[in-house]
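Researcher: I need the complex structure. Ligand is iron/sulfur cluster. Inputs:
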Amino acid sequence: MSDIQIGGLVSFTTIDYPGKLAAVLFLVGCPIRCAYCSNPHLIAVGPGEYDPERVFEWIKSRVGKLEAIVFSGGEALMHGPALYDYMRRVRELGFLIGLHTNGFYPENLNAATDLIDWIGIDYKATQTNYEKLTGVNIAYDRMIKSLDVWAATHKPAEVRVTVDPRFVSTDDLYDIARDVAARGFKNFAVQKYIPHFEDDAHGTTPAMRNAFFIDENLRNEINSMFETVAWRE
Ligand code: SF4
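Model: Output:
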């Protein structure tokens, strides 16, 4: 049986699973190529740096100390059945299972819904700009299918938008929020785009990146659509 490939690990976090003490495993491999990727070292498929069995032994040692294990990436669902097996073993230890996903694998998400308690899912742009941002023309449709797969579970989720002004306008953010709310999601997050390499290639300015966060009308209207909205500056 093939195993998951783990490229990174955060041993303690209070912000990656709502209200729970958690650890995060970063699995290698991602099928898309976001212009602002913050984990470029994780997107190529290859051997992970961490032995999954040693990590599992470490997770066992966290019983009673942590409440949740979050699978992130890259795109963890790329690992298919090996991921489900690993999640199942972690779940049997009594942990909640979280997933950070870009939504590219609705079939795999559907196969794992019983194993996962909460997801954070990216809604990266409107359909018009999705391919430009991700480099993949089917990424938008697959993300929408994943939203609908998860909505049907009625389990909690956070839908996130990183507001990179190259790909998302304030009007786009309204449109995305309306669509997410219409699909029945209660928790939304707006995340500031922070360039990782200050080499000016991104061509954005602090004012452009701040625009989403200082517009009171925008904030109030989006806040009114959800139970919670996190504005992450
Ligand atoms: S989905 Fe995440 S890991 Fe994959 S390219 Fe985009 S930002 Fe990077």
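Model: Summary of the prediction. Helices lie at 52-61, 80-92, 106-112, 127-134, 139-151, 170-182, 206-214, 216-223.
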